[in-house]
Amino acid sequence: MGQREADSPPAAEKKGAEEEDDDFGYRLFPDRNKKPPSFLVRSLFTFHNKCQLMLRLTLETNPYARLLLEALKQSGCTVFNDRHFSCENCDACVGGGFDAATSQIVLCQNNIRRQSHMNRVVTHELIHAFDHCRAHVDWFKNVKHLACSEIRAANLSGDCTLMNEIARFKFGLKGHHQTCVRDRAIRSILAVRKVSKETAEKAVDEVFDACFNDLEPFGRIPHSKADAKRAYRDFQNRDRYTANL
């Protein structure tokens, strides 16, 4: 997997350089290697049904997701529900992931239980999809590329909003948002790459300023749904303005 949205800290990592048997995080998504169940089985599976319903609601109503879907379409990467999203069972520590090999977003149906969580996971992974669409990202060999997208996803998806941080019992004032973004980016790298913590931290620190300040396609850090709605309106108006030039 290219990257993922984490729910809890990853297990302790081995120190040292990348190991040769790196599975790129696919161990966290065991259903990736299995034959998909029949439609009847999936339709009777409560988790799968609920996941599909929450996904549809997110794509239709969430301003973060709607903006990203529009930006992807304008970049030549139209997203289709049945092609680019997959509700699957995952390891307990993850909520979702972006599979760069298939350009598919995995939603962890056994771990996403609330609509707010679905909104955040979809947004996080759509940011990875947007980066995958607009840039030549080397997800599997260049840890700095991965670090940059993880910084952007943590910064722009709502992962580090004040309410989410309070829910995690993390409090801070000046610079707390940046600290949250850095910490979550490092954790995400460690979950999907067999690198040392020092390697992950170095990669994040080396690209942090440039990637933290890359606010596309939002144009701002959306700290709330109201911010995301304003960003969506501005994005639509920006497109209309450009079309009239």
Automatic annotation (TrEMBL):
<keyword id="KW-0645">Protease</keyword>
<dbReference type="InterPro" id="IPR019165">
    <property type="entry name" value="Peptidase_M76_ATP23"/>
</dbReference>
<dbReference type="GO" id="GO:0033615">
    <property type="term" value="P:mitochondrial proton-transporting ATP synthase complex assembly"/>
</dbReference>
<keyword id="KW-0378">Hydrolase</keyword>
<dbReference type="Pfam" id="PF09768">
    <property type="entry name" value="Peptidase_M76"/>
</dbReference>
<keyword id="KW-0482">Metalloprotease</keyword>
<feature type="region of interest" description="Disordered">
    <location>
        <begin position="1"/>
        <end position="30"/>
    </location>
</feature>
<dbReference type="GO" id="GO:0034982">
    <property type="term" value="P:mitochondrial protein processing"/>
</dbReference>
<keyword id="KW-0479">Metal-binding</keyword>
<feature type="compositionally biased region" description="Basic and acidic residues">
    <location>
        <begin position="1"/>
        <end position="17"/>
    </location>
</feature>
<protein>
    <recommendedName>
        <fullName>Mitochondrial inner membrane protease ATP23</fullName>
        <ecNumber>3.4.24.-</ecNumber>
    </recommendedName>
</protein>
<comment type="similarity">
    <text>Belongs to the peptidase M76 family.</text>
</comment>
<dbReference type="GO" id="GO:0046872">
    <property type="term" value="F:metal ion binding"/>
</dbReference>
<dbReference type="GO" id="GO:0005739">
    <property type="term" value="C:mitochondrion"/>
</dbReference>
<dbReference type="GO" id="GO:0004222">
    <property type="term" value="F:metalloendopeptidase activity"/>
</dbReference>
